[in-house]
Batch of 3 targets.
Target 1
Amino acid sequence: MDSSYNSSSTKPLYRGTQIVWYILGLLEALLAFRFVLKLLGANSAAGFTSFIYASTKLFVAPFLNVFRISQVAGSIFEWTTLLAMLVYWLVALGIIRLFFMSKTVSTPEAAAKLNNENK
């Protein structure tokens, strides 16, 4: 068995990545609901629709003026929600990469990885 899996940092690293993926999954699901509800022209006065719009407003706010909103007969194709989903996914990947940078590695393992990067 690889000695890097027996490191004292392995379990916290695993938990940290699980937490990041869970939060991302929850956020992406809420944003997907928002996208579909807008696309289908859902009644914004309905409880569920109102909840989804209110809970995702903070997360789409930085992207609201990036693209024009495409609207046809009450249906809204909200490009900004798709952009937000992409950006948050990339941020989560970046956080996971940072976690892995803190992983303890042995000297031979570090040397092998450096040799692979220099090829």
Target 2
Amino acid sequence: MPEEMLCPSCGQFSPHSEIKGGQKNLVRCQQCGDTHPVVREKPRLKTVRAIISTGATSCTYHIDLPSRDLLHVGQELVVDDGKSDVVISEITSLETDRRVIEAEAREVTTVWARAVDQVEVKIAVYHRGKTKSFKELVLGERIFSVGESGRAEGAGYRIVKIKSRDGTFPSQARARDIVRIWGRRD
């Protein structure tokens, strides 16, 4: 696949196709046809500590990230340290010499994140003047909707309200974005 770069002959930022790879890369400008060498920098990696929360527990991982990658709060991060399961997570905070919302990986000492591949959804069910709380482990991409029926501890309920992480009350949301679900017993 052609890569866009600046051609030293025609001075245009245009697609170039690779002729020869390896240590001495040669490319051809698709605009003017000139062939010229190009130096590609091999990305340096930075080992970063990642603390991933899953419900009430947290696990520490050590992951290698390209040092120039820009990380930011809210970004999805696949954590694979090669020793345990792969965890899909969402960055909640970044630590450099202080807490920041955005930084290059080379500046980061710790990534704080929450697992979003499987999440614990808190459900409060109201029945005859009493509310009972439950926790359900579900896939993070599962969609919950107001009006939907569910079951908890053998009792049926209907969802009446959903609160999302951004503080709104949507009519439907992904499990990974939900703070709490309220329901009424059928």
Target 3
Amino acid sequence: MDDLTDLYQEIILSHNRRPRNEGVLEACDCQAEGFNPLCGDRITVYASKDSEGCLEKVQFLGEGCAISRASASIMTLQLVGASVDEAHAKIADIAKLLTQEEEPKADLEVLGDLTALLGVRRFPARIKCATLAWHTLGSALRGEPKHEER
């Protein structure tokens, strides 16, 4: 189990140090600003859609803890190609995965880098750090310009 914990920590640190898809997406179809008042994480999420309404690009810009930044980076990779409905379903799945009482099965092959976020479950105060980007993207897709974690 220590080997898995080390792997998950390395995934989080890698995405924090070298976030994927970080930056302003100039030609975006929707965007929203997110804020976590508990720790001060701030993020803006941008998304553009292709001609069929699927997410073509997802990017973010923000300041926050390693978990918040890593989660945003992972999210940008996970949702490219998803329809808006699929994106909303994935956002709900992530929230459930991090908050459900029973321990989810950590399957690196199925979840990919998302598996690393499961370690956050041991620190309930940090769950909002992990879900901020996801909920902010949900707000953007609904046309809501702001999201605040509660």
